[in-house]
Every structure is written in structure tokens, then in C-alpha cells.
Amino acid sequence: MTHADGKTSLLSSITTLKSSLADFIEPDFGLLNELLRLHVLTRRQAASVRKKETVFDRNDALLDHLTSPEGQSSEEQCGKFLTALQRTGQHHVVNFITQNGGQKHK
User: Fold this and answer.
1) Looking at the predicted structure, is the pLDDT value of residue 5 above 50?
2) Which long-range contacts does 12-18 make (Cβ < 8 Å, 24+ apart)?
3) Among residues 3, 38, 64, 93, which is most buried (max CB within 10 A)?
């Protein structure tokens, strides 16, 4: 999905890059707490993510919550996700998302 300015939406970018993102997001050192503070995840959703066995499974669960049609998926929620990534020092992930996986938006 593209906006009137020709840029791809954050939700669309995150959804498209989901399988790659799961490989390098670090959910365990403040990200989930930040997402709770920003009201991106509920306590129940965060607990569901935390109980997954591997970091990759936790990332998959996190991204599923963020992009699920029945969830609170929105550009605003995705923007808050980027804010949480920045606040937890994961600027490389923000850059990966905003640059469409290393490809500049057309």
C-alpha cells in the first residue's frame, strides 16, 4: 500500500519484511517493556511473546501481534514500534524498515 506521496506505508513495509526482521530484532532487553509503555502491546500480548522459547519465536509472535488484521495494526502503532526500537538502541532495525529492507522507496 502506498500513500499519496508515493511512499510505502510502515505497516506494509513491516509486513513485507516480517521474515527478515525476525532474524535481528532484540525483544528481550527493553523492547517489550517499551511497547507496553507505548500501548502497542497489552500485558497479555507481551506475556504471550515472552513465553516463546527462542528469540526468533518471540520476534515472530511480536510481529504477528503488530501486523495481525484483528489486532490494533495501524500506521500509528507501527510508528510507535519504530519509536520503541529507537529507544532501545535498535536503529539498524528502524533503518532496515524505513529503507524497505535496504531498497529505497520509489
Assistant:
1) no
2) 13/97, 13/98, 13/100, 13/101, 14/63, 14/66, 14/67, 14/78, 14/81, 14/97, 15/67, 16/100, 16/101, 17/96, 17/97, 17/100, 17/101, 18/63, 18/67
3) 93
Range of the domain at 36: 10-98
Q: Let me know if residue 42 belongs to a domain.
A: yes
Looking at the domain assignment, is residue 65 inside a domain?
yes
Q: What is the pLDDT of residues 12-42, one digit of tens each?
A: 999 999 999 999 999 999 999 999 999 999 9
Residue 2 has pLDDT above 70, yes or no: no
CB-side neighbour CA atoms (13 Å) of 43: 0
pTM for this model (two decimals)? 0.85
